[in-house]
Amino acid sequence: MKGRTDMDMVPLNNGVNMPMLGLGTYALRGGDCERCVLEALELGYRLFDTAQMYGNEREVGNALRRGGVPRGELFVTTKLYRPSASYARAKQGIEASLNALQLDFIDLLLIHEPYREAEEMYPALEEAYRAGRLKAIGVSNFNASRCEAFLRACTVIPAVNQVEAHIFFQQRGLLEEMKKHGTHMQAWSPFAAGKNDFFSNPVLRALGLAHNKTPAQIALKYLVQLGISVIPKSSHRERMRENLGIFDFQLPDEDMQRIRALDGGKTLFGWY
What we know:
The chain contains ten helices and ten strands. With 272 residues, the protein is α/β, with parallel strands linked by helices. The strands form two sheets. Strands 3-4-5-6-7-8-9-10 form an eight-stranded parallel β-sheet. The protein has a two-stranded antiparallel ribbon with strand order 1-2. Helix 1 packs parallel to helix 9. The longest helix has 15 residues, at 87-101. The chain is globular and about 55 Å long. The N and C termini lie far apart (42 Å).
């Protein structure tokens, strides 16, 4: 098996190290999902993000078993969704994900959305965390006010809040709030699903030419330099390889300011 790609790691609030870049698997299904995960492993990816809602935990697990990478090098994230929205159902959901992924433990388990029952679900995550079945736990798509309310009911502070974040909706305010609590912010859809002519944006293109990088690499690097980890989804090997190529350069302050000015402050997906 090929060696892992050099990649920045972020220490979570419990000391667990997580790669700053991973492969998102939303909308990947069946054999195509297994192929993508195997190719990503070969390229050096070690963080893989799935969810019960995606319907592909089994395929992700199959590929990870076939890939031959030692378990200690992998970081696997999954998420519980609405069918697990109670304490008892969350406990069952944790076991279902462990079984589907064919793992003895999950590196990071998140509550997928700010469900009304999230505070009821979370103790099941805390128990599995203390038992070693989950190495870290957290939430997803929680805004700052929902996080504040949620934190009052926690005994284990969420390690991660995974949210929409990209150049057009940078969520820097939420980032600062999460830092206050020691919760790491991770970006789903860091390319905004190509909305707003993302890949032909003139600022990203100009900076890409200046750094001999692609607009996609500039966009990912911007988030990573802010301290936001990223999980871009791709089913194309060369794009997966391209997304990894962001750890050999830095954006100077003036470039960061140019990208910062692109922030429209509004969701492009209707989550917030």
